[in-house]
Amino acid sequence: MVRETRLSPDQLMLPLFAVGGSGVEIPIEALPGQSRQSPDVLARRARAALDAGVPAVLLFGIPEHKDAAATGAYDANGVVQHAIAAIKDAAPDLVVVTDVCLCAYTDHGHCGVVVDGRVHNDMSIELIARTAVSHADAGADVVAPSDMMDGRVGAIRAALDAEGREETAILSYAVKYASAFYGPFREAAGSAPGFGDRRGYQMDPANGREALREVAQDEAEGADMMMVKPAAAYLDVIAAVRGATSLPLAAYHVSGEYAMLVAAARLGWLDERDAALETLTAIRRAGADVIITYHAERAAQWLATG
User: Fold this and answer.
1) Among 48, 154, 161, 269, which is most buried by a count of CB atoms within 10 Å?
2) How far is Cα 18 from Cα 194, in angstroms, rounded to an integer?
């Protein structure tokens, strides 16, 4: 009765990985319980998540072809575009959020266009905005730019509005750190950079005040929701961002944070259910309205059973 922080399934969002084909399901070794799935299989997984009480999914794509211009990201017949349609057909009431980035579609693995060995910010945001529009045209409810290029939220908002997509919302990865906790995800999405790292455009894990500047910039450019990524290792940042904006705030309990809990549980070192629910509750307590987590479906089931 006097509990201060409550966790419920409708505060969770499940990440999903789309690949081409039909009837495809490829387990991801570094993310136990998660798979790369073709649109038909993905649609069934999304429907099951909705039935469990999870209201939204975050969709990532793994294309068959990669090139320097990330053409697969904004192809109307791309894997994400097909997956959106399949999910909407199977679960019309599910909120479909799409990750808008180029890293999984470029042959060099960086989140933008590379010119002379460096990521070119302005050339990148043009393609990122084009990708967001293609996702909206395919039926996405929310687009979520994760690239951390400067000015990309404003460019996406302008591009969406110009195409009559004023109602498509933007969930900005406003505060995304250059974290060691992304390792399992890069295996899942095949998005590891082919050279260098992403510290030139993702944030230094030592910086807290910078997060507030990033949030203020993206809010001014028209973002509808904010995100902090990672979550569990950045509870102080979530709390600070919560105090700095009135916009809805999401936090991404990322692949490495999830994988650590699963691995320790499999070794018998902790109880996965209790540890996962405690971690998700802590993220809520810090101020997140929405938690993106690979535990979403199971957490919803755990919460339903008490």
Assistant:
1) 154
2) 22
**How far apart are alpha carbons 176 and 257 in whole angstroms?**
15
Give the other-Cβ count within 10 Å of 206's Cβ: 7
Contacts of residue 168, Cβ cutoff 8 Å, sequence gap at least 6: 132, 136, 140, 141, 142, 143, 160
In this structure, the strands spanning 56-61 and 35-37 are unpaired
β pairing state of 95-100 and 56-61: parallel
Omega within 30 of 0 (cis) for the link into 230: yes
Calculate Rg over the CA atoms of the chain: 18
Query: Which tokens hold the place of 49?
Result: 């998540």
H or E stretch including 131? helix 121-138
Domains of the chain: 9-305 (3.20.20.70)
Distance CA 93, CA 147 (A): 28
Under a CB-based contact definition with an 8 Å cutoff, are residues 288 and 238 in contact?
yes
User: What is the Cα–Cα distance from 146 to 185, expressed in whole angstroms?
Assistant: 13
Phi-psi region of 28 (alpha: psi -120 to 50; beta: other; left: phi over 0): beta
CA-based nearest residue to 173, from 123, 118, 223, 243: 223
Q: What tokens does 306 get?
A: 């008490």
How far is the first Cα of the chain from the last one, in angstroms, to the nearest whole number? Answer: 15
Positions marked catalytic = 176, 229
pLDDT, tens digit (0-9, with 9 covering 90-100), for 144-194? 998 878 899 999 999 999 999 999 999 999 999 999 999 887 776 555 555
Tens digit of each residue's pLDDT (9 = 90 or more) over 26-39? 999 999 999 999 99
Q: What is the pTM of this model?
A: 0.93
